[in-house]
Amino acid sequence: MSDFTIYHNPRCSKSRNTLALLEARGIQPRIVLYLQTPPTAGQIEALLGKLGMGAAQLVRRGEDEYRARGLGSDSSAAELVAAMAACPQLIERPIVVRGERAVLARPPERVLELLD
Fold first, then answer.
1. Residue 17: partners with Cβ closer than 8 Å, 6 or more residues away
2. What is the pLDDT of residues 76-89, one digit of tens each?
3. Phi and psi for 70 in degrees, rounded to 5?
4. pTM of the predicted model, to two decimals?
5. Of all residues in the chain, what percent carry a pLDDT higher than 70?
6. Among all residues, which ones are annotated catalytic?
């Protein structure tokens, strides 16, 4: 079993390209279709810790749901995490995890940082 996990949206070209980069290197990651199986707030907080970033860096501000929920630059991390848990399309993708490390694979080549 692979020690890689990808939070994947098959409709996203960046996500598909990231998965293809892993597979081209013989890595078959565990695929989490996060839109179908949304991570909990606790799981999002754990991902943020592995990514080394704050909630504001992971949320997709261009989504209609961001504005519909009244989110903005003054939203707290807790508000953003709760919104991402309730509405997973607000989560930037793809996220790839290997052990205690993770990257937001934008661009997809960032996933290569996890190979060393």
1. 108
2. 999 999 999 999 99
3. 75, 20
4. 0.94
5. 99
6. 12
